[in-house]
């Protein structure tokens, strides 16, 4: 049976390890951490530029004054339902304005949004409800041909702390589910009382980007998350004239705060929501809304380039295309500027904290061949070999980090302390990188994403980069499968508009100068790549296909 929900703002101190007191003092003294609450961002902008455009979703538009008004009304509605500061609320919505409205309304109330992806189902949502003792759950009625109301009914039945389900759309045959629109009331109800929150309190819970097991939860505070978004916005040079297109899921850390939605709103710009990542949808919104900045992941880049060649949309307003969430192959990176006519910014980050960006002032070669450098002067970086000792610049090693916006431990998961953190508080990212003398990082793979073929070690990421340079390949993933003779063999899964063969792929890789043993032993053509709930290629699902 679930334990009763905690009413302590931010949860009990044992829920997650914070930063040591000396680091807290150092970050505050340096001005990295300010006394700001995430829920106050729209109100601050409404006071300065009430009539400026803030949010666009299809034909629906909000000025900053209207956005702040609706957030305040929703906060009052949540309070009338019984939500209180510190309550955890699972937020599982697709790309709709209601995500933004409810996210800020929960913060205004002092509640804690728990991010879930639209693709999550009973296993993941049940895990989140159990781990957080969630008091509420927000879902769409239907999305991508799935009825989230039935899932919500099952989750509530099995988790007694979860008393309230809010549905964006039609509650269907669930009379006790609360329609989102009723939260506004008639406009005459009392507002929620001011939240007695501290900027060091738990602000939100993000999902880890791991591809195995149930997701770990990442505690972010107002202090560190506001710093994350504000600093990234400064590097990207966002301002009141910025129009940011949210293409990837809104619940992604990348979309929300790198600099994303938060950085744009903190800068007084406009956020435009794309209902799906289809390039034609995005191109239409860029033209219609005068989008200046947007962000995509590497699997989308070939489709954007292909659709751009085919339809020649007007992307004259687009200044900066961020690409992150996975490594962007150098060949694709070099095509973005000449073909799309905008500046590329590579992004390498993690919901756990550390964010790396290339700068608009970086040389083109740096932009196209590295994944940026840490955004904060207080980010501490170690690159270590298998023995745990630092390796020289230019050598490959595992990336370890700590800093003013990188967690010191997962939420209610003390068992991960020994495997994911060093004794002195460095987070083990699991990423293999090479650091240049400039401080830029080049991501070369994952610690566990290697194939041992008869003693020859093959870096899957390296081979994937070469495969993506093939003119007929749109997406590529290389996985290991057991082999009685060699221990492991490699299988390349390809999404292609042609019919490449093992022999043809081997010849292509040989012409690119790749060692023969790195060519895949098998090639499998598939219609689409399976993705995890957080949008990464699901290599476990690919292995299951072999």
UniProtKB/TrEMBL annotation:
<dbReference type="InterPro" id="IPR050237">
    <property type="entry name" value="ATP-dep_AMP-bd_enzyme"/>
</dbReference>
<dbReference type="Pfam" id="PF13193">
    <property type="entry name" value="AMP-binding_C"/>
</dbReference>
<dbReference type="InterPro" id="IPR020845">
    <property type="entry name" value="AMP-binding_CS"/>
</dbReference>
<feature type="domain" description="AMP-binding enzyme C-terminal">
    <location>
        <begin position="462"/>
        <end position="536"/>
    </location>
</feature>
<feature type="compositionally biased region" description="Low complexity">
    <location>
        <begin position="8"/>
        <end position="20"/>
    </location>
</feature>
<dbReference type="InterPro" id="IPR025110">
    <property type="entry name" value="AMP-bd_C"/>
</dbReference>
<feature type="region of interest" description="Disordered">
    <location>
        <begin position="376"/>
        <end position="399"/>
    </location>
</feature>
<feature type="domain" description="AMP-dependent synthetase/ligase">
    <location>
        <begin position="44"/>
        <end position="411"/>
    </location>
</feature>
<dbReference type="InterPro" id="IPR045851">
    <property type="entry name" value="AMP-bd_C_sf"/>
</dbReference>
<feature type="region of interest" description="Disordered">
    <location>
        <begin position="1"/>
        <end position="20"/>
    </location>
</feature>
<dbReference type="Pfam" id="PF00501">
    <property type="entry name" value="AMP-binding"/>
</dbReference>
<protein>
    <submittedName>
        <fullName>(2,3-dihydroxybenzoyl)adenylate synthase</fullName>
    </submittedName>
</protein>
<dbReference type="InterPro" id="IPR000873">
    <property type="entry name" value="AMP-dep_synth/lig_dom"/>
</dbReference>
